[in-house]
Amino acid sequence: MFEISVLSAALGGLIVFFSPCVLPIVPFYLSYMAGVGMGELQGGALAPGARRRAVGAAVMFSLGIVTVFVLLGAAAFGLSQAFRAVQTEFRIVAALIVGIMGLHFLGLIRVPFLNRSFSLGEGGDVRQMSVGGAYLVGLAFAAGWTPCVGGVLTGVIFTASQEASAWEGLGLMLVFGLAMTAPFVVAALFVEPFLRFVARFRRFLPWVEKAMGALLLVFAALIATDQVNAIANWMLTTFPIFLEIG
After folding, report:
1. Phi, then psi, of 95 in degrees rounded to 5
2. Which of 160, 189, 198, 211 is deepest in the core (most CB within 10 A)?
3. Helices 26-34/191-201 angle, 10° precision
4. Taking the alpha carbons of 142, 72, 177, 133 in that order, is the dihedral positive or negative?
5. What long-range pairs does 51-56 form, CB within 8 A, spacing at least 24?
6. Nearest alpha carbon to residue 30 among 67, 57, 64, 60
7. d(CA 161, CA 9)
8. From CA 36, how far away is CA 126, in angstroms rounded?
9. 6 neighbors 168 (Cβ within 8 angstroms)
C-alpha cells in the first residue's frame, strides 16, 4: 500500500510541474534565479556564473516549497488522528474539495480562487539574493501556488493523513514535493533545451489541464467511496512487481 502511495505521490508531483498553471512561468523564475533578462536566457550560451546562480537558487527555492508541503502533511496527519471519530466526514470534505477542483480544470465551473498564483513582481535581482533569500522565496511561492495545484495536493495530503504512521505520511509529502520541484533544478542545469521543450509543449497545455481535471474527478470518487486502498490492493495483486519496490 505505502509503495503504491509513493508512486502516486511522485506521479502527482510531476503532473503538477507540467500543468498549465506552473510550466509556463518556470522560464521567468529561471531568469530571476540566474540574474539575467529573459532575452539573454532565451538567447542561449548562458554564462557559467549565471548557471551556477540559477542551480543554487533553484535548489534552495525547491527546499522552501518542500518544507511547506511537508508541514501541510504533518498538520493533516495530526488532525486526522485527533478526529478519528469523524473520519467519514473528513473523507467526504476531502472528496468535495478534489471534485470541485476537477470540475474547475475541466472548465465546467470556474473558481477564481484557484487561478491565484505567486508572482515575483518587477525588478527582482537574484544577484543580490542570498541562499536564505531563495529559500524564503520558495516558502512564499508554495503558499501562493497552493490554490492552483490544490486538487492534486489535497489528494496527496488526504492519502498521507491515512498512512499507518506519521513518518509514512510525511514521507509521502516529501516524495510529492521532491517530484514536483526536481524538474526546477533540472531546468536550471539545462536551461537552453528546457526552454525549447517549453516552447514546443505549450500547445498541449489545455489538454493537460483537461486530463488533470478528469483524474481529479476519478480520485474524488475513490476518496468519497473509500476505495483508495482497494485500488492500491488491486494494483499489488495485478502487478506483483510493486511488492518488490523498496
Report:
1. -65, -40
2. 160
3. 160
4. positive
5. 51/188, 51/189, 51/191, 53/126, 53/127, 54/30, 54/126, 54/188, 54/191, 55/185, 55/188, 55/189, 56/131, 56/134
6. 57
7. 13
8. 8
9. no
**In three state form, how does the secondary structure of 86-97 look?**
HHHHHHHHHHHH
Segments making up each domain of the chain, as ranges: 2-241
Which distant-in-sequence residues (6+ apart) come within 8 Å of 112 by Cβ?
none
Alpha-carbon gap, residue 213 to 51, rounded angstroms: 35
**Vertex 7 angle, CA 5 and 9, to 5°:** 65
Q: Determine contact, residues 179/10, Cβ cutoff 8 Å.
A: yes
Please provide residue 227's backbone torsions phi and psi, each rounded to the nearest 5 degrees.
-110, 5
What backbone torsions phi and psi does residue 124 show, to the nearest 5 degrees?
A: -65, 140
Tell me if 34 sits within 8 A of 118, measured CB to CB: no
State the Cα–Cα distance between residues 116 and 63, nearest whole angstrom. Answer: 22
CA gap 110, 236 in Å, rounded:
37
Note the pLDDT tens digit of each residue in 183-229: 999 998 888 888 888 888 888 888 888 888 888 888 888 778 877 66
For residue 158, the Cα-to-chain-centroid distance in whole angstroms is 14
Q: From CA 149, how far away is CA 21, in angstroms rounded? A: 8
Say which residue the cell 489545455 belongs to: 206
Place of cell 504533518: 74
Write down the pTM of the prediction: 0.74
CA dist 192 → 21, 38, 72, 136 (Å): 21, 12, 34, 26
